[in-house]
Amino acid sequence: MDKSIKIAFIGLGVMGGPMTGHLARAGFSVAAYNRSPQRADSWRKTWDQEGLEVAFADTPANAAQGADVVCICVGNDEDLASVTTSTGGVLEAMSEGALLIDHTTTSSDMARRLGGVCAERSIAFVDAPVSGGQAGAQNGRLAIMCGGSDEAMARATPVMEAYAKSIVHVGPIGAGQTAKMANQMCIAGILGGLSEAIRLAQGAGLDLDKTYEAISGGAAQSWQMDNRWATMANDEFEFGFAVDWMRKDLGYALDEAKRLGLSSPISSLVDQFYAEVQASGGSRHDTSSLISRLPKAKS
Questions:
Q1: Which entry of 6, 45, 180, 298 is annotated as an active-site residue?
Q2: 180 is catalytic
Q3: Domain around 230
Q4: What is the pTM of this model?
């Protein structure tokens, strides 16, 4: 893709900030917007130190003015609406033929509705939620699951390659969000079992390093086990993907399952467990803090 194209990135959080930086490093012309001026200033200083050129705007619409591609990574359905279809949103400024890539994890209904608004304005749209957490964003190693037309995907892929390790076109608009729901359901189930397994090993007095070595080489191996076993065993949770965010994502997943007439008892149960973690003050802890609700065996 022509690196002279103009890209606007809306949302400079723990995911969007690093993603924006990767676009600038790749040589794209980038403008950015964040609702919190303090966070925008922090990123400005970081990128200035690195010699990256990123322009900053005071509204989403101003960031999107003249942009060929607009990328968004905010919190939820309401946040997405506020920076797209509301007054001052990007759709006020985007021209016909432009491309909107949404990396927010939303409901699939929101993706379809936004896709419809874009179609009315002759703007291409891809719903492209990401997985890989803060580390994946920082290292440019995100997994991106996408919904949209073949034509929109062909245009979006070279942009997303700046911060992705894998990009999969799952299906039409909304399919990316539904795939992300499946992703979060898998993570929730894995962490539930991993929490109980660690408590079992601790209660039996096993060497946890040896136990991890023994089981991580077989069918039980997972990303969560490889990256969270030690921190879960040590009750370290001040990092990573927050419980608040996981509950938001599981809420979308459970709503979609209900809409489809499906039962999701495990995901529902783990969601309730996360509600307990929130109630105990762990809202901003990593999702691996699920183990914190399980007491250790009495010695």
A1: 180
A2: yes
A3: 178-293
A4: 0.94
